[in-house]
Specification:
233 residues; 6 helices
């Protein structure tokens, strides 16, 4: 058996750029034949809806509560919904974090203030996994001469992002191999209709990934193979 997971998905509860709710995304991915996905909404330093005046606890529940509500439906559908975040460290310098939960978020109210290398260490100590999202992304709003982040403290690189161009993904895979890092892959999906004829991606595993721990263990072991389905570019 093969099981397909998208490891980069956004929903409208937290990400300003998303157009579909998390429950809508669960239904759409289930109908599209996926075994599951990781919700990786933009965190507080990224393109997020979360009000600045909220307390830390209120902010964290804005991320966690929609996940818990959608997971009830996911469980009914025998679908694996996993939790993560995508934090912003500058233009095209975003990091996906997996294997964290509400307890981790509440216990680290300074996580938006500490250097990324320290956060990566905390996530790793918690059993989690960090991956550079869409390396080498080129957009009109991204300066050509921006300074790329130090990847030595990360666990992996997203070697296929369905919203990136092919040359950008090729460079990411080459860097992953050169740096000796692990890999992730995903669609960077923000809406249900992208599953209908759009560019999508993820990782295929030979076993179910039912929990965040199982996902992190699989990523650390280098399991999975990249899945991509591309519309005409």
């Amino acid at each position: 058996m093969e099981y397909l997971y998208d490891l980069h998905v956004h929903s409208s509860e937290c990400s300003k750029c998303a157009h579909s709710t998390l429950i809508e995304m669960v239904k759409a991915y289930k109908d599209a034949g996926y075994a599951g996905f990781a919700i990786t909404n933009h965190f507080l330093r990224g393109y997020s809806w979360i009000p600045a005046e909220y307390t830390w606890e209120q902010k964290m529940h804005c991320y966690w509560d929609p996940y818990i509500e959608a997971k009830k439906l996911a469980d009914e559908l025998d679908f694996d919904l996993l939790f993560g975040i995508e934090e912003n460290y500058g233009m095209a310098q975003e990091v996906l974090f997996y294997g964290i939960d509400l307890d981790f978020l509440l216990a680290n109210p300074d996580m938006c203030d500490i250097p990324i290398e320290e956060l990566c260490e905390r996530v790793r100590a918690y059993g989690g996994f960090s991956s550079h999202a869409h390396p080498f992304r080129e957009r009109d709003y991204i300066p050509k001469d921006y300074k790329r982040m130090d990847i030595s403290y990360l666990d992996g690189l997203e070697i296929y992002n369905a919203s990136n161009k092919n040359p950008e993904n090729i460079k990411a895979e080459e860097l992953m191999k050169e740096a000796g890092l692990k890999f992730t892959a995903g669609s960077d999906n923000h809406m249900t209709w992208s599953l209908e004829g759009g560019n999508v991606g993820g990782l295929i595993f030979d076993h179910r990934i039912r929990t965040s721990k199982e996902l992190c263990d699989a990523l650390k072991s280098g399991e999975g193979r990249v899945y991509k389905k591309e519309a005409d570019r």
